[in-house]
């Protein structure tokens, strides 16, 4: 006879980890430590409210985290003020096994209406970039730092970004892309807590949780400043090279 073990509660694991960390820090203080070296990105993540999938119903099979579960949670989310002005949530869409994940800042007006990331004018330009690289939109994943439109397309507030980021982090953990392309300074700031401007950062390889990350200009910036397109293409050629690919012949 086999016995079925009860699905473990992820909250219990997180609380146990938090208690272990607290007790370790208290121990260090008792030992006389006055400072502890720590990665600022990891420290910031500890301060984020953890997001857990809804508990499985009694008797239901245990399911791993999934993009669909994240999208459902995003749909019901009212954790930051952006929920009150959104029309639709925009969790992001694309391949479930992408080599590349493109991450922007947040939904605009068209995205807010359709519930899809990068479908306005900037999205059309992103599609051209993706296709010039030899992919289709369905072969990559496209998402944003925040999943609801900031009113008037303003930059999301730091606290809105921090509240929403656990959704994106879970998506990245599930999708395991080989490369992340961070579109614009807000995407880099959200993922890596790096404050520099995108002009300085673009084209320089960075790393998010061991995944190669290439910062480049946001397509909306390129619509206003077309001269930046050649820089973005250089960055995308570097991405292709990192994937062991070459740009397809131009049509
Ligand atoms: Fe929730 Fe993110 Fe939307 Fe804020 S932006 S309400 S955290 S889904």
Summarize the structure in words.
- The structure is a single chain.
- This protein is of the alpha/beta class.
- It has one domain (60-242): Uracil-DNA Glycosylase, subunit E (3-Layer(aba) Sandwich), CATH 3.40.470.
- It contains ten helices and six strands.
- Strand 5 (206-208) and strand 6 (211-216) form a beta hairpin.
- The chain has a six-stranded mixed sheet with strand order 1-3-2-4-6-5, with helices on both faces.
Give the strand tally: 6
Query: Compute the gyration radius: what is it?
Result: 20 Å
With strands numbered from the N-terminus, the spatial order across the biggest sheet is 1-3-2-4-6-5
Q: Which sheet architecture does the biggest sheet show?
A: 6 strands, mixed
Structural class: alpha/beta
Provide the helix percentage. 40-55%
**For the record, what CATH class applies?**
Alpha Beta
Outline = globular
Q: Unreliable runs, pLDDT <50, ≥5 residues?
A: 1-11, 48-63
Bound molecules: iron/sulfur cluster
The number of helical segments is 10
């Amino acid at each position: 006879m086999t016995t079925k073990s009860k699905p473990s509660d992820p909250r219990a694991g997180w609380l146990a980890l938090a208690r272990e960390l607290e007790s370790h820090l208290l121990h260090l203080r008792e030992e006389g430590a006055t400072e502890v070296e720590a990665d600022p990105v990891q420290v910031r993540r500890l301060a984020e409210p953890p997001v857990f999938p809804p508990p499985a119903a009694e008797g239901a099979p245990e399911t791993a985290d999934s993009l669909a579960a994240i999208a459902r949670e995003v749909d019901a989310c009212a954790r930051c003020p952006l929920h009150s002005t959104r029309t639709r949530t925009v969790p992001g869409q694309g391949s479930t096994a992408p080599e590349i994940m493109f991450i922007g800042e947040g939904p605009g007006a068209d995205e807010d209406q359709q519930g899809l990331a990068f479908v306005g004018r900037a999205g059309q330009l992103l599609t051209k970039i993706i296709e010039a690289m030899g992919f289709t939109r369905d072969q990559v994943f496209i998402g944003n730092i925040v999943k609801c439109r900031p009113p008037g397309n303003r930059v999301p507030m730091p606290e809105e970004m921090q509240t929403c980021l656990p959704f994106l982090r879970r998506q990245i953990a599930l999708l395991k892309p080989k490369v992340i392309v961070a579109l614009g300074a807000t995407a880099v700031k959200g993922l890596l807590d790096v404050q520099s401007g995108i002009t300085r950062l673009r084209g320089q390889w960075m790393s998010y949780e061991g995944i190669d990350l290439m910062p480049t200009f946001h397509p909306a910036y390129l619509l206003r400043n077309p001269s930046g397109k050649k820089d973005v293409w250089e960055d995308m050629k570097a991405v292709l090279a990192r994937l062991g690919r070459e740009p397809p012949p131009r049509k």
